[in-house]
Design goal:
- The longest helix has 30 residues.
- Helix 1 crosses helix 3, helix 3 packs antiparallel against helix 4 and helix 6 packs parallel to helix 8.
- The protein is built from nine helices and ten strands.
- By secondary structure, it is α/β, with parallel strands linked by helices.
- Strand 4 and strand 5 form a beta hairpin.
Length: 291
């Protein structure tokens, strides 16, 4: 992609995503992803009912009566975006490719984050860590991230969700809010890694999928290719049994994903490329607000 084309796309995405984050997501983001960490605020005299583990023994010894440390919730967050750049995202049969929607969602979350004075970082992944962008603040940083999302060329087309989840657990020492943006076309063997990560951080999952993954259209012979393996074949979509088996497979996979997220206590939302992601994210945020 030419540099001028990239800059035009970056500007277009910035205008759209900044407008969404300012006019729609501002309040929702603040309440749904408020700081979950605790920062030291002050010390005060011990009161009946205080947790004895909060006693500040140095101050207590100095004044010869018990004092406790008071903590308050940190408002500033670090937000990490774990973005799937594997081959399966480079697909779409409706208005846009899956990777294009992922880019718009990620940009909207990023602009929401800087409105809240939060840091934003990115992990691009396939079956390996393709690139790590450490969290920083500011518009310039976000525009750099958007440019990377538009023009990034991964080394691998395959997917391994355990890799970025385990990387996040190791690289981020302090608690952060993380969003995994993927179609989740992978082996369902990342539950343990996700559970461990969500104990340390606040993780949300955003699945982006194409409607053909759920329901094949009846259009006769269709050539299909596995974007991650390169394997091609023809299928007869006029065969009702084939279409039924395809949908049944999708529903089984979704049920497995739901169980993984439930066991890991991870909130998630599924968004098709022909759907309005704004409405879906609003519902997602609202669900978190009510917890």
């Amino acid at each position: 992609m030419e540099t001028t084309d990239i800059l035009k796309k970056v500007r277009k995405i910035e205008i759209k995503s900044r407008g969404l984050s300012q006019n729609i997501f501002a309040g929702q983001y603040h309440s749904a992803f408020k700081g979950r960490g605790m920062a030291f605020s002050e010390v005060r005299e011990y009161q009946y009912g205080d947790n004895i583990r909060d006693i500040d023994w140095n101050v207590t010894a100095r004044f010869h009566r018990p004092y406790v440390k008071v903590f308050e919730e940190e408002r500033e967050l670090t937000v990490m975006l774990l973005i799937d750049v594997s081959g399966s995202l480079d697909f779409g049969t409706s208005r846009q490719l899956k990777k294009d929607m992922v880019t718009e969602i990620a940009a909207t979350l990023a602009f929401s984050a800087i409105q809240n004075n939060d840091k934003i970082g990115v992990i691009f992944f396939s079956d390996r860590i393709e690139k790590y962008i450490p969290p920083k603040k500011g518009r310039k940083h976000i525009l750099f991230i958007i440019r990377e999302m538009l023009d990034f060329k991964p080394q691998s087309l395959k997917t391994d969700l355990r890799v970025p989840i385990e990387f996040l657990t190791k690289v981020m020492r302090r608690r952060c809010t993380a969003f995994i943006l993927s179609d989740f076309y992978d082996k369902p063997d990342f539950e343990n890694a996700l559970t461990i990560c969500n104990h340390k951080h606040d993780v949300g999952a955003i699945q982006v999928y194409d409607r053909c993954a759920k329901e094949l259209p009846n259009i006769g012979l269709m050539r299909v290719m596995d974007a991650e393996s390169g394997h091609e074949m023809f299928i007869d979509t006029s065969d009702k049994r084939l279409r039924y088996a395809h949908t049944a497979y999708w529903l089984r996979r979704q049920d497995i994903l739901r169980r993984i997220f439930a066991k890991s206590s991870v909130d998630y939302v599924s968004i098709a490329t022909n759907e309005d992601f704004v409405r879906k994210l609003m519902i997602f945020f609202d669900k978190r607000n009510k917890q």
